[in-house]
Write a structure and sequence with these properties.
The protein is mainly alpha-helical. Helices cover 58% and strands 0% of the residues. The protein contains three helices and no strands. The radius of gyration is 11 Å and the shape is globular. This is EF-hand domain-containing protein.
Length: 45
C-alpha cells in the first residue's frame, strides 16, 4: 500500500493498481517476504 500511495502521489495511477504494485515488489523481493528491505532496495537502485 505504501508503494501504491507514492505512485498515486506521483501521478502514476495505472501503475498504482494494487496488483501492479505487487508485481513490482515481487520483481525485487529476493527473500520472498513481500517487502523490499534495505538490502533489496540498494540492489534495485
Amino acid at each position: 500500500m505504501e508503494l501504491q500511495k507514492v505512485l498515486c502521489a506521483l501521478g502514476f495511477k495505472e501503475a498504482a493498481e494494487l496488483e501492479n504494485c505487487r508485481k513490482m515488489i515481487l520483481a525485487f523481493d529476493e527473500n520472498g517476504d513481500g517487502k523490499i528491505d534495505f538490502e533489496e532496495f540498494v540492489e534495485m537502485i
